[in-house]
Amino acid sequence: MLDFDEPMSPEPKTPRLQPLPASKRPAPASVAAAMPPAAATRIITPPSAAAAKDRTVFPVSTSLDPVNIGGRRPSADDVKIIGGRGYDLRQPVPFKYPEVRKRFLDARNNFWVPSDIAMGDDKMQWNTGKLSEEEAWMFKTNISYLTASDNLVPDNLDNALLENITANEMRQYLRWQMAEEANHIESYFFILESFGLDEKGQGQIFELYHEIPALTNKLNWNLTFTNNVVNCDAPNGSPEKSRALLEDLISYYIFEYLFFPLGFSQVFALARQGKLRNTAQQYQYIWRDENLHAINGRWLIRQVIVENPQLWDAQMRERARAIINEAVNLEAAFAHATMPNGGITGLSVNSYIDYAKLMGDNICRSLDLPLLFNIKEHPMPWLSEYEMKQEVNFFEGRVRDYRTGVSLEWD
Ligand SMILES: [Fe+2]
Ligand SMILES: [Fe+2]
Question: What CATH code is carried by the domain that includes residue 145?
């Protein structure tokens, strides 16, 4: 296995192709003629050698830019996490952010398959009435919401983030994350299929997010941030677009770090009562992935801030707190809708909402924002039994320099 800390192999194992002598080379084709008209409009020609040193003369690089003959390799200084200019996004080196590549390799090592988890006990319980009516309602609404939201996350990466991320290693990671989210959807589908539910029975559960306002609202809330980026008319790299993107990144972080673990806790509460333990195991694997996605979301926000400190002004910091507060309110409404009688055995609505507040505070803490709720103790410490060991300490990064409030550096 490739050890990330070791230098990459310096020599290719196959002999290099020798260039043709000049007399045998084909005549160079006209670049513009070889391209469709729309692509030809994006040929990037620096106005002069002197001006080429000023990267601001280039438009922000996008994945739709044509490959231009004569395009040059970026230097590490050129590469930016968003708003990088004048280089081709298909060029994988230099690695500006080696930790992101490591995240990709770690995630790939974690890949798992839902059908590897035996579901026989859960099938028996589901079909012999082992779940109370309240527990069954909570489970159905839970899996309906999670399935819809695991569709929203990769769609957000596709529609909003990949169009704006200008570091190849992060684009690679996000592509891998999209595959993992697809695997999570397969897991939810596999769970209901394993219960013996036919397409009609599965559909009646999956479609609940269309019927319960607390679920619909929570999904549309995240979707708003995606649409704000996609519908922003300002160019990539502009302050307006970058602010919309930063808000969308906070929403992405909330999905991975708050909405998903809260949802998983409902099924872990059932498992503690000896119910749906196979399903809980599926959720454990999903949670492990979501934790790594949350680490990536937090890293992205902080890196955008480090490289664009002007974005993290007092107004944006207050907006970030408001977004986190909105998320906790949505989670509280979700709790009441999925547990309409105040909870189930082993999980009360109140402790669930306190857990949401705790996670909201943790997000504030990790972005160096004032806390919103000041929750002192974890209301459900038993959840740690269901959290699979992580290779990375979630809060290992700490603010080490906080000078003006707009200039953050992170260990
Ligand atoms: Fe997911
Ligand atoms: Fe995720």
Answer: 1.10.620.20
Residue 190 domain boundaries: 98-410
**DSSP per-residue letters across 123-168:** HHHHHTT-S-HHHHHHHHHHHHHHHHHHHHHHHHIIIIITTTB--H
Q: Write out pLDDT tens, residues 307-343.
A: 999 999 999 999 999 999 999 999 999 999 999 999 9
Domain-embedded: residue 251: yes
Q: Are 312 and 406 in contact (CB under 8 A)?
A: yes
Q: Give the tens place of pLDDT for each residue, 112-166.
A: 999 999 999 999 999 999 999 999 999 999 999 999 999 999 999 999 999 999 9
Q: Is 328 inside any structural domain?
A: yes
**Count of domains observed in the chain:** 1
* Residue 149 CA to ligand 2 centre (angstroms): 9
Cα of 295 vs centre of ligand 2, distance in Å, is 10
Instruction: Measure 154 CA to ligand 2 centroid, in angstroms.
Output: 8
Closest-lying ligand to the alpha carbon of 290? 2
Distance 294 CA to ligand 1 centre (A): 10
